[in-house]
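Task card 7
Instruction: Convert sequence to structure tokens.
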Amino acid sequence: MKKRKGFFGEFKKFIMRGNVMDMAVGVIVGGAFTAIVTSLNQDILTPILGLFGGIDFSYLTLKMGSGENAPVLAYGNFIMAVINFLITALVIFCIVKCINALNDRFSKKETPPAPTTRVCPFCKSEIAIDALRCPHCTSTLDD
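Output:
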């Protein structure tokens, strides 16, 4: 059987690796999650913030020149995009923080194993923890 070589063979090998498939699933789930967070931001959080004196900056524009075809700088939309980004980042931070806290709470905590060695106080060599005499310097140990 002849091996597939060349650009398309390498591309197929790249695509079939597991981490590429995981990345594709992550992008798809991320897109769906973005829709959820955007809806949370626009439909729930922004109106609630509007009750406390929130201002809609999206109408702010600067007409650069005169006439019908003069370019318009919609800097209000940019301000709203920055505010939406900050709210979205805050929501994602809170969700990740909650997930990490739950993960820490329910993960099995491993206790470190009891030490099996200690240091000889005379020659500073590592010896068995229950040794009565150091095998290196032959000193009698008190413990």
